[in-house]
Amino acid sequence: MIGSLTVTIPSPWNLNLNHHLRRRSSLRPTPPLVKCESGGVPLTKQGHRFLSSLAATAAVRDPATANRLIKKFVASSPKSVALNALSHLLSPRNSQPHLSALAFPLYTKISETSWYNWNPKLVADLIALLDSQGNYSESQALLFQAVSKLKSRERDLVQFYCNLIESCSKHESNDGFDYVYGYLSELVRNSSSVYVKRQGYKSMVCGLCEMGQPNEAEKVVEEMREGGVIKPSLFEFRFVLFGYGKLGFFEDMERMVSEMEIEGLEVDTICSNMVLSSYGAFNELPKMVPWLRKMKTLQIPFSVRTYNSVLNSCPMILSMVQGSDSCFPLSLGELFEALNEDEALLVKEFVESSSVLDEAMEWNDSEAKLDLHGMHLGSAYLIMLQWIEEMKCRFKVEECVIPTQITVVCGSGKHSSVRGESPVKALIREMMVQMKSPMKIDRKNIGCFVAKGQVVRNWLLPVDGAKSFI
Q1: I want to staple 285 with a disulfide (CB 3.0 to 4.6 A). Which of 27, 109, 303, 342 is the partner?
Q2: C-alpha separations of 156 from 140, 151, 160, 317 in Å
Q3: N- to C-terminal Cα distance for the chain?
């Protein structure tokens, strides 16, 4: 029972300690330059400086200096800055993984401050990291402390286990995951709380799929059905179908879609993007076209992520926008001629639907704006070509009121793999140059290209026999 979990902590998670030590010893010191990896926890400027100092210390293997730097940083930093740095070190996408070994001493110092409030999510992340590093005694001490704190609060305890399941899956800690999964499973099945069961089952299904076990996740869904207390929701079905899809088990993925429809659950844009992403990961481009058509038939709207999922799977388009020669078609007509049949059919499905373009653009008397936020390179490229065609069509209408300013928002690179270097901005800049566009980077906002509306209109629809760029 759950009460016994706080009394007897089983033996350390059965990971190969020597393997972890070899893996860690093979890490080479990196220069003291801290970059923010996409998908990781963004660092504050003060955190950047701190980790840069730690990186220099790690390069010369000076633990005493590292501890002194940690102590000074915690003492001089606001709560938000200190916790931000710790969260970055705990992230599996930490930009300098060799510094993650310093997460525990940093946490220890933070936990000694007067402002620190015990945080179960932070502790779960730390436990999973310590286990992945082979630091079993520290991870189990933290686990024992957490379960002791939460044993009388069932809802908080299940949430902690859910956090721990998620952290273990992110750190790809197989044995750690199995260990915690056993505790969570026992808690869920012995609890009479609907909330505990719902949260626990969601975490179990999600975790199993993240660990590459969608067949086991499907068994959990079936258990939910048979139990009758908690009915499987769209959330569980999505994870199972995507779990199969990521492994290339398309028959099982499609079977789950059919089961969703039988259950009366809506196959929405999110589910569709999961299916498309799965096909694309295995270069099954011919399978993507019928699915896009199915979305249109069922009136499932395309999204920016739909564009990303499909176009990230198109090798020819990616080679155009990522190529070193930076030479690519500058109109939809040229693009169709350059693509093979599979990719051309996919692009055709997008061009025939303007839903994503309509959401990305604004048009009024004062400004016509295109917002490329959230778009990957292929998506930004295609949307730009669609947008140019749309502007030409609008400008050809005599009653069209020409906006005072035309703006393309592409971002300044705050969320890019290297902070401040936006691949989309670089692509748009190159397109503007090759098109001889009058649009230039805005002096007030370097993440935007701007020009006067009349100037853009004359560029797209030149007068007096002048030749258009397309």
Answers
A1: 342
A2: 19, 8, 6, 48
A3: 72
CA distances from 389 to 64, 395, 440, 450 (A): 63, 10, 20, 18
Residue written as tokens 């999505």?
238
Contact of 196 with 215, CB cutoff 8 Å: no
Answer for the pair 257, 275: CB distance below 8 angstroms, yes or no. yes
Q: Of the ranges 183-192, 218-227, 414-423, 452-461, which one carries the lowest mean pLDDT score? A: 414-423
Query: Alpha-carbon distance 59 to 72, whole Å?
Result: 19
* Type and span of the H or E element at 370: strand 367-371
Angle at 300 between CA 298 and CA 303, to 5 degrees: 160
Give the chain's count of helices (H) and strands (E): 24, 5
- pLDDT at position 356: 95
* Top-confidence residue, 421 or 313: 313
* CA-to-CA dists, residue 373 to 122, 317, 327, 360, 408, angstroms: 30, 19, 23, 9, 10
Return the bridge partners of 363, or none. Answer: 368
Provide the token pair at 258. Answer: 């059919």
DSSP of 265-305: ----HHHHHHHHHHHHHTT-HHHHHHHHHHHHHTTPPP-HH
